[in-house]
Specification:
About 35% of the residues lie in helices and about 25% in strands. By secondary structure, the chain is an alpha/beta fold. It has a single domain (about 5-160), classed as Ribonuclease E inhibitor RraA/RraA-like (Glucose Oxidase, domain 1).
Length: about 220
């Protein structure tokens, strides 16, 4: 499947259903939070590793292509490596977003951008510009491994990471989950009880009896 088709199908979903499709899906730490709300993060990872220094981030801004998402492993830095200028430049270039395992600053400006920015925390202190850092190498961001070219997908709930091959396997399952959820929501909106749509009594009984194969599921 072409990457463009893959991303188009992903836009119809959300990270929650992809996580439900496989509990082993890489999900970033909940400490990595969006600066803005209501924006979808989706694109290929352009990875950066730095520490208390943002020279490498400048290099990434120069090299990354439209649609790419900067994934920045600051290695527990306490200084901000992204602020309003870098965020605005990323938006100008058409990047898909920025995810910082570390700090950003100038959030009053970033909050006005349509390009999503995520960070672990906010500080007014900026880093230095002396260390070269590393670009397009495997990093750890949000406590999960990220490789250059991995697909990054996020919303207000959080961020998942998957290779294109992993995403191809997840999509059919996630799409079916989404269809089921929509059907359930429609029935609840029409006055149907949620519990009446679940096999809850049978599942609870079977679990009490020690049936390890029993699962909670919808009855539609």
């Amino acid at each position: 499947m072409k990457t463009e088709e893959l991303l188009t199908r992903v836009t119809q979903l959300d990270p929650a259903v992809l996580s439900d499709a496989d509990k082993k899906t890489r999900v970033m730490s909940p400490d990595i939070r969006p600066i803005q709300s209501g924006l979808q993060l989706l694109g290929k990872a352009y990875t950066v590793r730095c520490h208390e220094d943002f020279l490498a981030v400048i290099g990434a801004l120069e090299d990354a292509e439209a649609g790419d998402i900067l994934l920045i492993d600051t290695q527990d830095s306490r200084a901000a490596v992204v602020g309003e200028l870098f965020s605005m430049e990323a938006a100008r270039k058409g990047l898909g977003g920025i995810v910082i395992d570390g700090a950003c600053r100038d959030i009053s400006t970033i909050e006005q951008l349509d390009m999503p920015v995520y960070a672990r925390f906010v500080t007014p202190v900026s880093g230095t510009t002396m260390a070269l850092g590393e670009l397009q190498t495997q990093i750890v961001c949000g406590d999960v491994e990220v490789n250059p070219g991995d697909i990054i997908f996020g919303d207000d709930d959080g961020i998942i990471v998957a290779s294109t091959s992993e995403l191809e396997e997840l999509l059919p399952v996630a799409e079916q989950i989404k269809l089921t959820e929509r059907a359930v929501l429609e029935k609840i909106s029409g006055g149907t009880s949620l519990l009446s749509l679940l096999n809850y009594p049978e599942h609870r009984r079977q679990r009490r009896e020690g049936d390890a194969s029993s699962t909670l599921k919808f009855r539609l």
